[in-house]
Amino acid sequence: MREALQQAKRIVVKVGTSTLTHENGRLNILRIESLVKQLADLANQGKEVILVSSGAVGAGLAPLGLKEKPKDIATKQAAAAVGQGILLHMYEKLFGEYGHTVGQVLLTREDSTKRSRYVNLRNTLLSLLTLGVIPIINENDVVAVDELKIGDNDTLSASVASIIEADMLIILSDIEGLYTANPQTDPTATLIEEVDQITPHIYEISGGAGSSRGTGGMYTKIEAANIAVNSGVHMVIALGAAPLVISRVASGEKVGTHFVPRTTKPHMKKRWMAFGSRLQGTIIVDEGCAHALMTQGSSLLAVGITAVEGEFDEGETVSIVFEGEEIGRGMVNYSSYDLDRIKGHSSRDIAELLQIGSTYEEVIHRDNLVMLR
Ligand SMILES: Nc1ncnc2c1ncn2[C@@H]1O[C@H](COP(=O)(O)OP(=O)(O)O)[C@@H](O)[C@H]1O
Ligand SMILES: N[C@@H](CCC(=O)OP(=O)(O)O)C(=O)O
After folding, report:
1. Which domains occur in the chain, in start order?
2. What's residue 147's pLDDT?
3. What is the mean pLDDT of the chain?
4. Gene3D superfamilies, from UniProt (predicted)?
């Protein structure tokens, strides 16, 4: 029994295209009806429910006479424009039958990278929940081109869960959960029931999409788990086709893979910095520095930096990496150009090295740092 999941009050559920459609690409109406019924019942229990639904492109294929997912962006966007309407119509009708109102929310990358938009999005979602509405969220595929794209709804759902401080995120997939290897290529792979820490090994065993209808595969679900657990949100990956799967996860039954969250949840500003803003580069640190950051609550000082990757300005967000593993994220006080000149040096020498009067002692102050390990 997973007691904490039973207690979850605010629940985000993400459904992928492979769960919502048949193999021929047409909508799986029985499946959608069952999902809606379970979500409506959770709402009737007094829980707050947020649905992140893929399927816009998939639902738009048949009406446009397309046999498979188009390769070119413009046709994909046309399919999404048609399909998103169809999807929403269906959700509105089905939730309506159970007495629930839905609200459509379509997002692009900028809605989380720009701090003002991030705060605005949070306010809108919380206001929908206060009004008893079930938000139905998708990426705005119709306008999103590369630089605006979130890329996949797995990480989108985790960002949403982080933004609104959800208690639990359930990602429904075409597979029971995370396996020790991709079961499509390794028949000996077994289901992992619980993940306490998202180590590089967890990323290594997670491969790409399993079907032409899926996007991102297990890898993007682990990226989502990284955002969720570091934002204090429980996450479960489970099989969307399993009977009453949402109800069973929410009642604490041991189904799928459970990712256990960290006990401390960073403040909203830090959550935005780590999981909303764009990462602009990487700072590689030595062992002493990694240890001080992870165990002593220290700020990041120039002396512990061994290398700097990417080009970034002061005030931007970067990854902090030790031995190939990302251990934290933070907002820098120095540009990559300046860091290259001061890395490995004591804070006392910065003014002389950079030939400036006043300097910051820290490269990343503790207040602007989120540790992931
Ligand atoms: N370690 C793993 N455990 C489980 N599935 C994996 C793993 N590595 C890769 N996969 C693949 O990821 C697929 C699920 O992702 P995806 O195809 O994007 O589906 P969805 O549409 O549900 O998001 C699985 O069907 C499987 O083929
Ligand atoms: N936003 C796209 C789907 C993106 C996506 O992540 O797809 P999936 O792997 O099916 O959840 C759509 O609605 O078609």
Report:
1. 3-269 (3.40.1160.10), 278-371 (2.30.130.10)
2. 59
3. 93
4. Acetylglutamate kinase-like (3.40.1160.10), PUA domain (2.30.130.10)
Site to substitute for ligand 2 among 14, 17, 31, 140, most atoms within 8 A of C-beta: 17
The owner of tokens 């251990």 is 327
Measured in Å, residue 80 CA sits from the centre of ligand 2 at 10
Q: Is 258 left (phi over 0), alpha (psi -120 to 50) or beta?
A: beta
Ligand 1: nearest atom to the Cα of 154: 23
Range from 16-30, 139-153, 359-373 that averages highest in pLDDT: 359-373
Per residue in 133-184, pLDDT (tens digit) is 999 999 998 887 765 676 789 999 999 999 999 999 999 999 999 999 999 8
Q: How far is the CA of 16 from the centre of ligand 2 (A)?
A: 6
Other C-beta atoms closer than 10 Å to the C-beta of 183 total 16
Question: Which stretches of 131-256 are DSSP H helices?
Answer: 153-163, 200-204, 217-230, 245-250
What would the two tokens of residue 287 be? 């062992």
Q: Which pair of tokens denotes residue 159?
A: 């960002």
Answer yes or no: are the C-beta atoms of 283 and 363 closer than 8 Å: yes
Q: Which has the higher per-residue pLDDT, 216 or 67?
A: 67
| Tokens read off for 216 | 């991102």
pLDDT band per the 50, 70, 90 thresholds, residue 293: very high
CA distances from 219 to 27, 95, 152, 177, 210 (A): 25, 31, 11, 12, 11
The CA distance from 87 to 137, in Å, is: 11
What value of ipTM does the predicted structure carry? 0.97
Is pLDDT above 90 for 40?
yes
Using alpha carbons, select from 223, 95, 246 the residue that is nearest to residue 162.
Answer: 223
Q: Which atom of ligand 2 is nearest to the CA of 138?
A: 1
Shortest CA distance to 13 belongs to which of 58, 56, 46, 54? 54
Which ligand has an atom closest to residue 88 CA?
A: 2
How far is Cα 47 from Cα 50, in angstroms, rounded to an integer? Answer: 10
- How do residues 47-78 score in pLDDT, each as one tens digit? 999 999 999 999 999 999 998 888 888 999 99
